[in-house]
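Summary for the steering committee. One of the milestones for this cycle was to obtain a three-dimensional model of the protein with zinc ion bound, which we needed before selecting residues for the alanine scan. The sequence and ligand used are listed below.
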Amino acid sequence: MSIVMDIWQVMINYNMAKGWTTMTIRDSTLEALSEYHKSKNIEKKVSPWIDEILSSYIPKAEFLTKKFASQLEMIAIKGNYALLEDTKVEDPVKVIKEKDSLYCKLDKTDNCIHTQYVAAMPELAQIFKNESP
Ligand SMILES: [Zn+2]
């Protein structure tokens, strides 16, 4: 690393609050988060709010997996659907995006434990971004 980069890094670290660090995210992600933050009149500033979202990711996913639906596990996201393993049934369960909702192929409904599980998981955003495979 060059001396210029060393000095630059020291300057960045000097300006950061203790206990905080920088990381890289996509411009489009930050813009979307900032617009949402502004539209909801959230009291916290954007950075602490994003930190709160990130720090809640693991406890939320663990709660869903261990307490809410311990028999379920996300196997894969493929295009606009999720494949779940459900220890109570033999075959993987397919939950597909239909219009603006989720539909369970096993239970033939938009409101079962499988659709609720997928709706609560962070992978939901990936399903809604994707089109049919
Ligand atoms: Zn289901």
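Key point for the committee: Residues 46-68 form the longest helix (23 residues).
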